[in-house]
Amino acid sequence: MKRRLLQLLLVVALITAVSLLLLPLRRQHVDSLYLNGAVYTLNDRQPRAEAVAVSGDRITAVGSTADLERRFKADTVIDLHGKPLYPGFIDAHLHLEGIGIALSNLNVSGKSLDQIRDLIREQLPRKPAGQWIRGRGWDQNLWTGKSFPNHYDLDIIAPNCPVYLVRVDGHAVWVNKVVLDLAGITSSTPDPPGGRILRDSRGQPTGVFLDTAIELLASLLPEPSEAEHSAAIQKASQECIAEGITEVHDMGADLSRIDLYKKLAAGGMLPLRVYVALEGTDQKAVEKYLSSGPEIGLHGGRITVRAIKLYADGALGSRGAALIEPYTDDPPNRGLTVTTSDELEFASTRCVEKGFQLCVHAIGDRANTIVLSAFEKTFNSMHVNGLDKRFRVEHAQVLAPRDIGRFAAIGAIPSMQPVHCTSDMPCATARLGLTRIKGAYAWKSLINSGSTIASGSDAPVEEPSVIRGFYAAITRERPDGTPPGGWCPDERMSRDEALKSFTAWAAYAAFQEKEKGSIEPGKWADFTILSDDIMTIDVRKILSVVVEKTVVGGHTVYARNGRK
Questions:
Q1: DSSP character at residue 524
Q2: CB neighbours of 187 closer than 8 A, spacing ≥ 6?
Q3: Of the chain's two ends, which shows fewer C-beta atoms within 10 Å, N or C?
Q4: Average pLDDT estimate for 36-62
Q5: DSSP string covering 407-443, please?
Q6: Which residue pairs from 43-49 have beta carbons closer than 8 angstroms and sit at least 24 positions apart in sequence?
Q7: pTM above threshold 0.70
């Protein structure tokens, strides 16, 4: 009996030994393994992990390092050495080609009037006769006196060369007398609907154009070649992936840009994903897509065209945002409405009928009320659930208290830019006053009322930096730490909410929650790997964190050390 038992034990031991020897041969093959990391999955069933297995462009498994090493063998093994890995960052509102153009043109961000003139003076010798000097980033709120500039400020240094400078928010343009003459703008030129030509005390144009008035100059600008458009998009894409961004929501693209995105993606020259909102003023593009329908997940998920972008008002910094009561620092001005309620309702109806998402720029409280009412009226009249349509209010910057809860109630998504809060601090209180400011950048109030916020940067208005946006969202402080404790600190997001707003919630805002936004088997292998963990480190160290790797569809598209 003992002999039989001993023989049985020997057989079991032999089988076990052979199984252990054969185990590595039975491990499933995957393309890559990410091991020994601090993985934030944003999957409630498995919030944290150490390792991720990837096959092709999809996630195969998520778990501990020991478990995944036991189950898988890989062509490429990446040891994270404890570094954090997050779902790929998403910038839910920017202008991709605009970033590339801004990088190529004169950057006057944060500059004084004298500094801007010095920069233009340096450019003049390099410009052939008739060539324009173009730039972006001026902000009169940073200057002594905070007054809008005049064409005389440019004429004194560039009397013969056309100068065209876009304000930081993109809602105002400042030009010199050469451009005014080329465009035929005089004291008798009327303001267009939804726009304003600023004038001096004698009624003469000052050279500053707001909102739709900018279109009076559009035909003068030299049209870039396709090669120049392509170069701008590629330059902007490289800028974004270096910031850990794996997808952008491009707010306002025409047919030529969409065709170029497709061409770049087909040639393997588009390193990130682009969710496109058609430029609503491009009637040719809108009619084409309303007739043919959305395009979803083209070129391996690189391109999706599913939204239409409209404008309800202008911007706060240039006093074009539409307010219920006059500007505190500029009565009786209440800002500009760019699109009527009837037009918004018509667009909403067509988008519901044709399966498109409607995204409407609304910054002032009056504009937000108009947009929410248009959405609500459309959903009610068509007997549809707004939650299913996921219409978006882009910026949702200043809200009347009664409108905060309406977002969740009707299913509208607030698509916001946390860094706008910290950038606008110097002028926002002056524009809005102490009472109305309580409804500005009201992130926590919106979240507490049931909304999910899709966060972005609005680049090139701001830098396309998720890390900077994350810091602004959780502190409401400038990069220098002022004001201590944050501006209107009750509206700060938690770190978890801020991370979701740049990942899971942004994916939801693009109907992509089943494809990305969290780290789960079957989803796209889109990751952002940072040098330090923004979820745990001291808040003062967050702005020093850098991107180590950006992974899109299982491929490393950016690596800080250059080794992909």
A1: B
A2: 199, 202, 203, 204, 205
A3: N
A4: 98
A5: HHHHT-EEEE-HHHHHHHHHHHHHHHHHHHGGGBS-H
A6: 43/518, 43/519, 43/520, 46/520, 49/519
A7: yes
What's residue 21's pLDDT?
45
Picking from 456, 380, 382, the residue whose alpha carbon sits closest to that of residue 420 is 456
pLDDT at residue 185, as a whole number? 96
Walk across the sheet containing 38-40 and list its strands. 48-49, 38-40, 84-87, 527-530, 547-552, 555-559
- The two three-digit tokens of residue 532, written as one number: 């330090």
Tokens standing for 362? 């609304």
- Burial of residue 9 (CB within 10 Å: 0-12, 13-18, 19+) is exposed
Q: Is 240 exposed, middle or buried (0-12, 13-18, 19+ CB in 10 A)?
A: buried
Report helix angle 283-292 to 255-266, nearest 10.
Answer: 60
Per residue in 479-513, pLDDT (tens digit) is: 999 999 999 999 999 999 999 999 999 999 999 99
pLDDT tens, residue by residue, 99-133: 999 888 999 999 999 999 999 999 998 888 778 99
The two most distant CA atoms of the chain are separated, in Å, by 116
pLDDT value of residue 6? 53
- Would you say residue 181 has pLDDT above 50? yes
DSSP state of 398: B
Lowest-pLDDT choice from 9-18, 301-310, 370-379, 412-421: 9-18
Residue 5, SS3 per DSSP: helix
Domain boundaries, the chain: 1-82+519-564, 100-218
Residue 18's pLDDT band, with cuts at 50, 70 and 90, is very low
- Name every residue whose Cβ is closer than 8 Å to that of residue 186 and which is 6 or more positions away in sequence: 205
pLDDT over 80 (residue 313): yes
CATH number for the domain whose boundaries are 100-218? 3.10.310.70
Residue 86's beta-bridge partner residues? 528
| Side chain identity at residue 361, one-letter code | H
What was the pLDDT predicted at 19? 47
281-289, Cβ contacts within 8 angstroms, sequence gap of 24 or more: 282/254, 282/255, 284/255, 285/253, 285/254, 285/255, 285/258, 288/255, 289/354, 289/356
Residue written as token pair 């700060």: 492
Domains 1-82+519-564 and 100-218 share a fold: no
**Domain covering 1-82+519-564 in this structure, CATH number:** 2.30.40.10
Structural contact between residues 347 and 277, judged by C-beta atoms closer than 8 angstroms: no
Tens of pLDDT, residue by residue over 209-219, are 999 999 999 88
Among residues 270, 509, 302, 531, the alpha carbon closest in space to that of 389 is found at: 509
Among residues 291, 245, 300, 297, the alpha carbon closest in space to that of 276 is found at 297
- Specify the DSSP class assigned to residue 57: T
Residue in this structure with the two tokens 């100059």, named with its chain if needed: 217
Q: Which residues of 391-423 are buried (b: 16+ CB within 10 A; e: fewer)?
A: bbbbbbbbbbeebbbbbbebbbbbbbbbbbbbb
